[in-house]
Amino acid sequence: MSDTILSCEKLNIFYDKEHVVKDVSFSLKRGEILGIAGESGSGKSTIIKASMGLLGKDAKIESGDIVFEDTNLCTTSEKEMRKLRGNKLGIVFQNPETYLCPVRKVGKQIAESINAHENTDAKKAKEHALEIFERLNLKDGERIYESYPFELSGGMNQRVAIATACLMNPRVLLVDEPTSALDRLAKKQVEDELLLLREKNNTAVIVVTHDIKLLEDVADNILVLKDGTVQEYGTKEDVLSSPKSSYTRLLIDSVPKGKGKRWNLLSE
Ligand SMILES: Nc1ncnc2c1ncn2[C@@H]1O[C@H](COP(=O)(O)OP(=O)(O)O)[C@@H](O)[C@H]1O
Ligand SMILES: [Mg+2]
């Protein structure tokens, strides 16, 4: 079996006449964490949506392929996509609190999401969820399970959303801006969760972010996008220490350099 689990080849996507993803190629191996960085509007979420078959009808994949295992996600039917989504391809959108129902307990929503894929009773669903919470180092799983989303912090909701997406043990997890609304401590916890996920489940992860600093901590490879075009693609070390494009350099330089050894990679 090939080590590559997902590959994107010369992908071109339009919204009406606007060309928003231009000839984008990358590949992802089992257990790899790929970071896609770029400022707002660069096409990051569009790539994630295309990989999940969730582009609205305003968008058109003009050419290119996204191949997951042996399936071309650009041409597969909605019916087939539904089988893959959630099951083999997990997704965590930005701001999970906006899609968690505010008036129903977290646990109830998790049980429903498990039930959408496999028939299981409430007790088993809960056991399964608590086991995943524990594996991903989410302390106090019982309390989380019995909470309403508004009773949890933004960081906790994000971590629960990632854990929930992992219940089906997807081969690939796509995570869109996981830390954009979080403070430093919560960011660190989300980062640790993503690393644990790779370590324990060998899940391949694509993390999309405008925060290149997040990628320094979690990514193996980094792809930098600008206006839908790949500016840079390579190992984290190469991209951060010797970026080829001035745009990547700008993105790196825009990160405030804290105390300690962060950004040593970039010292010149
Ligand atoms: N539903 C849509 N209809 C029209 N244009 C869109 C739509 N969604 C995104 N776009 C445009 O596509 C480009 C890329 O957007 P997006 O993928 O959301 O960027 P990012 O996630 O990097 O911020 C932007 O110019 C945005 O305005
Ligand atoms: Mg986005």
* pLDDT < 50 stretches: 259-268
State which percent range the strand residues make up. 25-35%
Computed structural class: alpha/beta
**CATH fold label of the domain at 4-94 and 172-266:** Rossmann fold
Principal-axis shape equals globular
The CATH homology group name of the domain at 4-94 and 172-266: P-loop containing nucleotide triphosphate hydrolases
CATH architecture assignment of the domain at 4-94 and 172-266? 3-Layer(aba) Sandwich
Radius of gyration: 18 Å
**Can you list the ligands bound to this structure?**
adenosine-5'-diphosphate, magnesium ion
* N to C succession of SSEs: EEEHEEHEHHHHEHEHEEHH
Main sheet summary: 6 strands, mixed
Q: First CA to last CA: what distance?
A: 42 Å
Q: Give, in spatial order, the strands making up the sheet with the most strands.
A: 6-7-8-3-9-10
What level of helicity do the residues show?
25-40%
Oligomer: single chain
Number of strands: 10
Tell me the name of the CATH class of the domain at 4-94 and 172-266. Alpha Beta
Quote the average pLDDT. Answer: 89
Counted by DSSP, the helix tally is 10
Using brief descriptors, characterize the structure shown.
six-stranded mixed β-sheet, binds adenosine-5'-diphosphate, Rossmann fold, 268 residues, alpha/beta, 35% helix, binds magnesium ion, four-stranded antiparallel β-sheet, disordered C terminus, globular
Can you tell me about this structure?
The protein is an alpha/beta fold. The protein has a domain of 186 residues: Rossmann fold (3-Layer(aba) Sandwich). It contains ten helices and ten strands. The strands form two sheets. It has a six-stranded mixed β-sheet with strand order 6-7-8-3-9-10, sandwiched between helices. The termini are far apart. The C terminus is likely disordered. The structure holds adenosine-5'-diphosphate and magnesium ion. The site of magnesium ion has 3 residues, from helix 1.
